[in-house]
Every structure is written in C-alpha cells, then in structure tokens.
Specification:
Oligomer: single chain
Shape: elongated
Largest sheet: none
Radius of gyration: 15 Å
Number of helices: 4
Number of strands: 0
Length: about 110
C-alpha cells in the first residue's frame, strides 16, 4: 500500500503533464458515457472511482509542484472551486527549485 501511495500521490508534476492527464480523464469519461451503461451498473461506479483516484493523484502532485500541501485537493469537492483549481494548477508555473515534495519535474 505504501508503494502505491508513494508512486501515485507523492512527488511533483509540471503543468504539461497535468493538462495531458486532464484531457485523458475527459476522454475516459466520454468513452464511459458512450457505452450507454444503465445508471446503476457496477461498471459505471468502478469507472467513476478510478477517474476520481486519477484526478486526486495528478492534483495532489501538481499542488506539490507549486509548494503546497496536497490536502488542498479537498477543495475540489466545493462547487465553484473548479475555476480557482484550473487557475492554480493549470496556469501557474511550479517552483523553479526543489522543494520538500521533490525535485523539479522534467
């Protein structure tokens, strides 16, 4: 379990990787929707859970790149926070030097 957390929730990612991840998440969402699964189908819940884990992973590591705690990702649950989230995570450059979350992402 610690290896999973270390690999997916620790470290830093840059803006480019964050945007690519966001586009892939949207693509997965569109593919899932196009399957026309019934509303209570278990596969719909599994896909939603996997998408949430991926979003949390890239958001936490992007917050780390900015020098902030990954706990700020919890604000994504607040309606209307999306614009602030995209501004910080998608537009602001990360720290130019290493920080307590790791070295500069390549």
């Amino acid at each position: 379990m610690n290896d999973f957390i270390d690999k997916f929730y620790k470290g830093r990612i840059n803006r480019k990787y964050w945007w690519i991840s966001l586009l892939l998440i949207k693509l997965i969402g569109h593919i899932t929707d196009s399957l026309k699964l019934p509303p209570n189908d278990i596969m719909r819940y599994i896909a939603a859970f996997i998408i949430i884990l991926i979003i949390l992973s890239v958001d936490i590591r992007r917050w780390h790149d900015l020098g902030f705690s990954g706990w700020l990702s919890i604000f994504s649950l607040i309606p209307g926070f999306e614009i602030i989230r995209v501004f910080f995570l998608g537009l602001l450059p990360g720290n130019k030097t290493g920080n307590k979350y790791g070295t500069i992402p390549s």
